[in-house]
Amino acid sequence: MKEQLAPVDEMKQKFSYIEFDEQKTVNVPADKLLEFMQAMKDEYALDFLTNLTAVDYPEENKLQVVYNLNSIEKGYTLMVKTDVDREHPEVPSVFPVWGGANWQEREVYDLLGIVFTGHPNLKRILLDDKFEGHPLRKDFRWEGGRE
Amino acid sequence: MLRTQEYFLNFGPQHPSTHGVFQIILTLDGERIVKAEPVCGYLHRGIEKLAESRTYTQVIPYTDRMDYLAAMLQNLGYVQAVEKMMGIEVPERAEYLRVISGELSRLTSHVLATGVYALDIGGFTGFLLCFREREKMMDLLEELTGSRMTLSYARIGGVADDAPEGWLDKLDKLMDEMPGYIEEYNGLITGNEIFQARTKFVGQLKPETAVNYSLSGPVLRASGVNYDLRKAKPYGIYDRFDFEVPLGENGDCFDRFYCRVLEMEQSVKIIKQAIEQIKEVDGPVMAKVPKVLKPPKGEVYHEIETSKGIIGYYVVSDGSNKPYRVHVRRPSFINLGYLDEMLKGYLIADVVAILGSIDIVLGEVDC
């Protein structure tokens, strides 16, 4: 069973600032993210933000935020990524577009330290409020690790 | 004139109705809830971090420990994600065993949810009845996998072992009896007047809100949104089975509960068909996979439908034998995201009814 993908080529014509790779994963600059996401929801019926996470790439000095969108009506999916600087990780929150971003952005903030600007209640969700550091960053070391 | 004031109440973290260690800080005006602040993380073990220093196969037992009530479905999501990344074809017989054990896992989870929900509302007998059948299913799962809850039955490329002799017949017999048991639950719990009074039109969710807040599983479908990945994006061999997706109308606690009861019937139907079809299929239960798994550089996002909702695995490979990053989209965690708004305006007693109807597992919420 092959998964259906959203019409990425058509999107590229409309939004010239996006880039995509052979897997049709779209890369959007952080400052255009909110505008692009709103258009995805309104014009392409991608109404279900199924997953929101991030990955740390210290060699490239970046953190990559990953969004997986589904369309319940059309049945296709889209993966959107945006790169942020590791020293000043700031991305606009997509909470105004999908309420489902609320806890997922808090989780990413907690574990990777990415600040989602405009989030109504951005604080740690899994770890203690007094915890220092962000464990899913690659340079985080803890006692009892296997390395 | 009397002066009134709002006050705080800590619901949990040590409270049986939270189904684990989960806290809600309630602000109350008399018995009404003005504000609710859910606090989770008491069971956080850092599974995503631990996975980064384990090999691909070693991650499988960790997935058991998230939703330990339907462990097979957790295993399945992960191994399918890795298989997708490596392009592994799974043998036919293994696919059937995955569906059978997966649906059996779903049944145990739904039976537990049904029974425990009755207990939450105050009906102890319903709880005991459900555990009677759950025990039989657990025995079958133990016979198949060697473990009652933390199954670790799926492997990258297939399943651990073929079903023991006569196991499928035993399962078939239990599945024949299941409709009768489900009728008993309906008579004892669903049809109970007090139960209905406590759950109908309580904690109603509009379909557009449920979609906007990324809710999934019975919580979403009880609001009438037809979104079940087994139908919408059939993974594995789910397109070979004939089953329906039960939907609710009001999106209240009762519908969420009843959706699960109806889903049990559908799971029984799927297992019956799978038992019938697997008789024709012989052969290995493991694909030929290398001893050391090194998926090519890249990433994959794969999601399947578990008993709680959509579980998604985002796996990044750097070409080594250990995953660079594993992220799990946990349905219980995301389904809780709207809880604070759902509780507003209801009475304290309804907190238990609403929280119970979402059917969470704290191992999965906190990961």
From TrEMBL, chain A:
Membrane topology listed for this record: Peripheral membrane protein
Domain of life: Bacteria
Cellular-component GO terms for this entry: plasma membrane
Compartment list: Cell membrane
Domain NADH:ubiquinone oxidoreductase 30kDa subunit: 26-144
EC number: 7.1.1.-
Catalysed reactions, semicolon-separated: a quinone + NADH + 5 H(+)(in) = a quinol + NAD(+) + 4 H(+)(out)
Residues making up the signal peptide according to the UniProt record: none
Keyword match Transport: yes
Keywords associated with the record: Cell membrane, Membrane, NAD, Quinone, Translocase, Transport
Main location: membrane
Recorded GO MF terms: NADH dehydrogenase (quinone) (non-electrogenic) activity; NADH dehydrogenase (ubiquinone) activity; quinone binding
Family label: Belongs to the complex I 30 kDa subunit family.
Complex formation: NDH-1 is composed of 14 different subunits. Subunits NuoB, C, D, E, F, and G constitute the peripheral sector of the complex.
Biological function: NDH-1 shuttles electrons from NADH, via FMN and iron-sulfur (Fe-S) centers, to quinones in the respiratory chain. The immediate electron acceptor for the enzyme in this species is believed to be a menaquinone. Couples the redox reaction to proton translocation (for every two electrons transferred, four hydrogen ions are translocated across the cytoplasmic membrane), and thus conserves the redox energy in a proton gradient.
Name this protein carries in UniProt: NADH-quinone oxidoreductase subunit C
From TrEMBL, chain B:
Membrane topology term: Peripheral membrane protein
Matching Pfam families: Complex1_49kDa
MF (Gene Ontology): NAD binding; NADH dehydrogenase (quinone) (non-electrogenic) activity; quinone binding
Domain NADH-quinone oxidoreductase subunit D: 120-296
EC number(s) on file: 7.1.1.-
Enzyme class: translocase
UniProt keywords, alphabetically: Cell membrane, Membrane, NAD, Quinone, Translocase, Transport
GO cellular component, one term: plasma membrane
Catalytic activity: a quinone + NADH + 5 H(+)(in) = a quinol + NAD(+) + 4 H(+)(out)
SUPFAM superfamilies assigned to the protein according to its UniProt record, in alphabetical order: HydB/Nqo4-like (SSF56762)
Function: NDH-1 shuttles electrons from NADH, via FMN and iron-sulfur (Fe-S) centers, to quinones in the respiratory chain. The immediate electron acceptor for the enzyme in this species is believed to be a menaquinone. Couples the redox reaction to proton translocation (for every two electrons transferred, four hydrogen ions are translocated across the cytoplasmic membrane), and thus conserves the redox energy in a proton gradient.
Family (UniProt): Belongs to the complex I 49 kDa subunit family.
Known partners and oligomeric status: NDH-1 is composed of 14 different subunits. Subunits NuoB, C, D, E, F, and G constitute the peripheral sector of the complex.
Name used for this protein in its record: NADH-quinone oxidoreductase subunit D
Organism this protein belongs to: Desulfoscipio geothermicus DSM 3669
Organism ancestry: Bacteria, Bacillati, Bacillota, Clostridia, Eubacteriales
Gene behind this protein: nuoD
